[in-house]
Amino acid sequence: MSSNDNKIVKYRKPLNLNIGMVIFAAMLVYIIICIFGFFSEKHIVPYEVKEGSLSANNVYQGIALRNEEIITADQAGYINYYAREGERVGVGNLVYTLDESGKLADYIDSENSGNNNLTSKDLAELKSEILGFVAGFDPHNFSEVYDFKYNVKGTVLKLSNVNILENIDRINAAGISDLVSFCRAPDTGIVIYSVDGYEELKFEEFTSELFNTKEYEKKQLISNDLIANGDPVYKLSKDEDWSLIIKVDEKKADELEELKYVNVKFLKNQDTSWGQVSRYTNPEGDTFVRLTFTNSMVTFCTDRFIDVELITEEKKGLKIPQSSIIQKEFFIVPKEYVTQGGKYGRDGVMRETYTEDGKATTEFIETTIYNATETEYYIDDSQLRSGDYIIKPESTEKTAVSRKGTLVGVYNINKGYADFKQIDVLYENEEYAIVKSNTQYGLSVYDYIALDATSVEDDEIINE
Fold first, then answer.
1. Closest-CA residue to 93 (of 185, 158, 192, 166)
2. CA–CA separation, 126 vs 133, rounded Å?
3. How do residues 265-285 score in pLDDT, each as one tens digit?
C-alpha cells in the first residue's frame, strides 16, 4: 500500500442556500433603507382647519373703590363696638362707646365670663361668616386666616356687647355710665371695622403696585382696644354705587370698552352683576379698566381685593394652532397697475425691460394677489425685485416697485405645495387663534395647512 492511499482529505459540504434566510436578509436591508429615508426626508405635518371657539381667560383680581369716610375718635379711651360690621346705620344710631377709665371693659369681661348665650340669629351670623371663609379660602393667601380670626373675634365681641347694652340699667347700676361716651353715626352708611389706606384712592391714581397683595396692609379695629384721640375707629361706606378696578392689556381694554357694559361674576359667592366700563392708562403705560356697579356693595363692603370673571361671548371662527401662523412680506402696488395676461389670463403686472440694443419694452410678470385694500394689492415678490418699474396698462405711466407690507397668514397645502394664505385673527391665546372664515384671500373650513409654518417655504412641494 502506498503512502498516498493513507492520505485523508477533508470533505467540503456543498453550499446550500436557505430561501427563508435570503428573504429575511432582503427584508432587513429594505427596512434599514426605509428607516434611513424616513429620517433623512423632510416631512410636513398637515392640520385640518375646523370651526371652533376659544374661551378667554377672563378671571381677574380687582380692587374695590367705594365712597368711604373714616371716622376718628374725638377722645382717648377703651372702645367697644355695638353696630355689626356690614350693617346699615342711620344718622344718630349708636356705633360704639368710649370708656375713659376702662371699667366698662372690665365689666363686660366679667359679664361675659358668666352665662351670656348667643341667640339663634347671632349663631347664624357666625355660621355664615365661617362658611364664607371656608368656601373662598386660598392656601396661597394664608394672611386671609388672620383676617378671618379678627373678623370672628370682632363679631363675637360685638354680639356680646349688644347683649350687655340691651341691659343698660345694669351699666348705670355699676356706676360707670358717667365715664362712658356713647358715639353715634354722623351719617347714613354701612359700618366697616377696618382701614387700609385705600379709602381716598382715585381711579386716576392707579398703579400696578397697588395690586401687590404681599405689600397690602389692612388694620382690623377690635373692641376693647385702647385708642388715642384722632385714631380711626370705623368707616362708613355711604353709597350703593361702587366700582372695581382691574389691570388689563390694551387689546383687552379696547374689547371691553367697545362692549360698554360687561356681565361680571363674583367668584366669592358666584353672583353676577352688570358693570359699566371705563378705562385709564397711567403715565407708566399701565392700562386699567373700571367696572361700575349700582348694587351689591354691601355684600363686598369688607373686601378690598375681589376675584371676578368677566362673562363675554366666545369668539367663533376657524380654529388654527399658533405654530401654523407666520408673517410674510409682500410688495404693495396700486390696483390700476395689475392686469390679466399670459397664456391663461392670470393676474400680473407689466414690467419694464430693455433689449440688448437698449430699447425699452415690457414683459408680463404673473403674480399672485394675497390681499387687497380699496386702492392697493399685496403681491408676491418671487419674480419682482425692489426697484423694478411696472407700467400702467394702456398708458405710459410707470411706478417703481419698492413699498412692502407684512401679512399674517398660514401655508395652505391643499394642492400639494405650500401656498401662503392671509388670515384675519379674531382672537388668540397661547396655543390657538380664531380667524375669519371664507375671506377672499384666506382659509375655508376643511382646508389643510402646515402645522409648523417654519418647516416649509413658499411653493415647496409637500411630501406628507
1. 185
2. 11
3. 998 888 889 999 999 999 999
170-204 burial, b at 16+ Cβ within 10 Å, e below that, comes to ebeeeebeeebeebebeeebbbbbbbeebbebeee
Cell triple for 307: 376675584
DSSP character string of 107-120: HHHHHHTS--PPPH
**How far does Cα 304 stand from its chain's mean position?**
20
Give the CA distances from residue 333 to residues 297, 330, 424, in Å, rounded to whole numbers and listed in that order: 58, 10, 21
pLDDT score for 381 = 80
Written as one string, the DSSP assignment of 211-227 is G-TTT---EE--TT-EE
pTM of the model: 0.56
Sequence-ordered list of residues with C-beta below 8 angstroms from that of 404, at least 6 positions apart, any chain: 329, 330, 331, 332, 381, 386
* Sequence letter at residue 124: A
Cell, residue 38: 424616513
- The Cα 53–Cα 35 span in angstroms is 39
pLDDT per position as a tens digit, 421-460: 999 988 887 888 889 888 888 888 899 999 998 888 887 8
- pLDDT at residue 377 is higher than 80: yes
Dig out the grid coordinates for 393 from the structure: 396698462
Cell of 314: 366666545
